[in-house]
Amino acid sequence: MTNQSYDAEFGDFFALLKPRVMSLVVFTAAVGLLVAPVSMNPVLAFSAVLFIALGAGASGALNMWWDADIDQIMKRTQGRPIPSGRVTPSNALIMGLWLSVLAVGMLGLTSNWVAAGLLAFTIFFYAVVYSMWLKRSTPQNIVIGGAAGAFPPMVGWAAATGGVSVESVLMFSLIFMWTPPHFWSLALFMNHDYSAAGVPMMTVTHGKPYTRKQILIYTILLAPVTLALAFTSIGGPVYFAAAVILSVGFLRGAWGLFQRSEDVATSDDYRAERGVFKFSLLYLFTLFFALLIEAALRGLNLTWGAWPVWI
Asked: Which residues cross the membrane (predicted)?
């Protein structure tokens, strides 16, 4: 960690919240809330999404506090507020803890305690189970730890309905199964960082060829989960079409990575790997946006006949 002293600014504390990660959390949580069969008062709905976002930010701050030692080693994280010396570890810890209490308490008061309980468990899972245990102890860190990023739509759904249902479980499952191929495609071209920091990512412990095989396997397993949502009460033909097209694209990309040798990947600076990583982001965003479209069409009574609901 740098010895240079800085006066922390608002932007430095905001960066502790991992705003890029938080934006995806906020979006999926908002979708989970908006597609639920129970409508909420707009002010309460906005408050629920806001407090879920604060909870996600709290998780990010606690993660940065714990990971400060390896963040200063990894090139892509050296500029974060703690390793760069702009925020002290103690301030990050205090901020993360206070935001956690505020987010969970206010979500419980403005929505319900089922949603608040799920948010509390999400924060605990990311900060303690993933950051403090899984991340540095097993190459399955991303597989199991992916649950932390998969909970937000379930929390949003619970904020609206007060419970959990097959729809929210499938939204959770979609993100949970999407997480390994998403992060492993990143690890293929960021392997040096993880190796230098001693993080046992799959690429470090089992090698890149094995990781490419696992990306293909998990992408295959992801496809039926993605398609299953189409045949629930929140699915429909728009979502189904998006799911088919995107799943074919993701499978094609994963198959391409599986066939690539490391020599070829190195020669073009991991162009295909970077492409699959970017496509995976588009994949998740588009699928959840399609769920929003389906909800809007139902709200306007613009449906095309009877769509089968099998799940």
From this structure: 21-38, 44-66, 87-107, 113-133, 215-232, 238-258, 279-300
DSSP category for residue 87: S
Query: Which DSSP letter does residue 86 get?
Result: S
Q: Name the residue among 25, 36, 19 with its Cα closest to residue 81.
A: 19
DSSP string, 208-268: HHHHHHHHHHHHHHHHHHHHHGGGSTT--HHHHHHHHHHHHHHHHHHHHHHH--HHHHHHT
18 and 128 co-located in one domain? yes
Question: 190 in helix, strand or coil?
Answer: coil
**Per-residue pLDDT tens for 5-40?**
456 788 888 889 888 888 888 999 999 999 999 989
Residue 3 lies in a domain: no
Task: Specify if 274 maps to a domain.
Answer: yes
Count of domains in the chain? 2
Q: What are phi and psi of 268, to 5 degrees?
A: -110, 20
Of 163, 182, 212, the last residue of a domain is 163
- The model's pLDDT over 176-225, given as tens digits with 9 standing for 90+, comes to 999 999 999 999 998 888 888 888 999 999 999 999 999 999 999 999 99
Which range marks the domain in which residue 53 is found? Answer: 9-163
Q: How far is CA 121 from CA 97, 147, 163, 253, 307, in A?
A: 14, 11, 15, 34, 35
Within-domain flag for 56:
yes
